[in-house]
Design goal:
Low-confidence stretches: none
CATH topology of one domain: Non-ribosomal Peptide Synthetase Peptidyl Carrier Protein, Chain A
Largest sheet: none
CATH architecture of one domain: Orthogonal Bundle
Distance between the termini: 13 Å
CATH superfamily of one domain: ACP-like
Shape: globular
Length: about 90
């Protein structure tokens, strides 16, 4: 039996990855990680590795659109979309 994870739960898990693994404080799910300087290119690589390890989500070259990673909310939506595509 497959269960779906609510978007809010995924957002909370992504926020935890930012805090625990990346040591980046993100005040809200809709905070723009790029314009606020919270996420740079090195942080993006580390984030992609963490997402793959935690959620089993692999970002293909076509997925690497900046808007997918602009905020925690956008990242959670990306994860949900990738999970649905992989089914």
């Amino acid at each position: 039996m497959t269960t779906t994870t609510p978007l809010a739960s995924i957002q909370a898990e992504v926020a935890a990855i930012f805090a625990r693994d990346l040591h980046i404080d993100v005040p809200a799910p809709d905070t723009d990680l790029l314009t606020t300087g919270r996420l740079d290119s090195i942080g993006m690589v580390e984030l992609l590795l963490q997402l793959e390890n935690h959620f089993g989500v692999r970002a293909e070259m076509d997925d690497l659109e900046i808007d997918h990673f602009r905020s925690i909310a956008a990242i959670a939506s990306f994860i949900t979309t990738r999970h649905n595509a992989d089914r």
